[in-house]
From TrEMBL:
Domain named Enoyl reductase (ER): residues: 11-311
Protein name, per record: Zinc-binding alcohol dehydrogenase family protein
Organism of provenance: Paractinoplanes rhizophilus
Domain of life, per lineage: Bacteria
Length: 313
């Protein structure tokens, strides 16, 4: 079969022949229909993700750990966790029986590949307890997941929405009440965050911008802290930050991981909700569809501007 094959850590996958997967006991072959290439897939390929060893223990291997495909009986499903070295960027892959869920009738498979990023945004409610009317800061709002988070915040009934990013033109495209460009100097950014304190933060950046945000939440003098619930989702601006003790002790900041509260029930509910919103066209996002044979050039693209790269074998 044809596949996108990675030969070196942090290399670029190439369109090549690869041995067809053979299903073992308790496994099933999936004909891949669509797979999104996300930051997590790049981090696994580069070996920098915490699960990289488990997901891609050796090379050569095929990247991407989930996608949409057809089972041998013709059912269209979303699948996950293919058995290494198989991944989703191939004509076929192999997964454990049960490592898939049906895709509802009429939902474009390419659209379905993007929905997990919207499900993640529901962590504002599941992990951070967002209530209608509360204000939200989307930290890193110009990427695919950030743009979805702005929309999900509105759909969950948020009041004021503040969005941060590095590009004014892209920030203007968002349905936000206030935007902050994080490329300004530290003091200016600190002031902007102080003026725009929210109830909840959906953080896709970590690194410098979130370090400054947390510093901005420390009161200037003795005062009762105001609560702020930050849900940590992504780390495109840095895997680490400096967290002075006072940023927690006196600020009212509570930090949650996006996985908090996730389980089969909350996941199923979130999935049903985003499918419903997608069908009603209340969630919109850009897709860049490419055929598998173009993977080498597509993997290296830097011009996506908030559109998801979706590979269709
Ligand atoms: N936990 C989950 O389930 C989950 C789900 C989805 C996403 N995520 C994570 O969320 C993050 C964003 O994902 P995505 O799919 O939205 O990515 P994406 O579409 O590739 O967008 C990346 C965004 O990050 C910004 N960015 C890149 N480098 C930056 C830096 N050094 N400083 C500040 N901003 C920077 C980009 O801004 P410019 O436009 O200015 O370049 C762009 O807005 C990733 O860390 C991803 O792994 C997690």
């Amino acid at each position: 079969m044809k596949a996108a094959v990675l030969h070196e850590r942090d290399g670029v996958p190439r369109y090549e022949d690869f041995p067809d997967p053979v299903a073992g006991a308790g496994e099933v072959i999936v004909e891949v229909v669509a797979a999104a290439v996300e930051n997590v897939d790049r981090a696994v390929a580069a070996g920098t993700h915490f699960a990289a060893r488990a997901m891609m223990p050796e090379l050569p291997a095929i990247p991407c750990f989930d996608g949409i495909g057809r089972l041998p009986d013709g059912r269209l499903v979303g699948f996950g966790n293919p058995r290494p070295p198989y991944g989703a960027l191939a004509e076929r892959t192999v997964v454990a029986e049960g490592a898939f869920a049906p895709i509802p009738e009429g939902l474009d498979p390419a659209v379905a590949t993007v929905l997990p990023s919207a499900i993640t945004a529901i962590s504002m409610k599941v992990a951070a307890g967002l209530k209608p009317g509360e204000s939200v800061l989307v930290q890193g709002a110009t990427g695919v997941a950030g743009r979805l988070a702005v929309q999900v915040a509105r759909l969950l009934g948020a009041g004021r929405v503040v969005a941060t990013g590095r590009d004014d033109e892209q920030l203007r495209e968002l349905d936000a009440d206030e935007v902050i460009n994080t490329t300004v100097g530290d003091d200016e950014l600190l002031d902007a965050f102080r003026r725009n304190r929210t109830d909840v933060v959906a953080d896709f950046l970590w690194g410098r911008p979130t370090e400054i945000l947390l510093r901005a939440m420390v009161p200037a003098g003795f005062a009762f802290p105001e609560p702020l619930r930050l849900v940590q989702i992504g780390e495109v601006a840095g895997a680490d930050l400096r967290l002075p003790a006072e940023s927690l002790r006196t600020s009212g900041v509570e930090i949650y991981g996006a996985a908090k509260g996730l389980g089969p029930a909350t996941m199923g509910e979130a999935y049903g909700q985003v499918v419903e919103w997608a069908r009603q066209k209340r969630l919109t996002f850009g897709l860049e569809r490419v055929p598998l044979r173009d993977i080498e050039a597509a993997w290296q693209r830097t011009d996506l501007r908030g559109r998801r790269l979706v590979v269709e074998p």
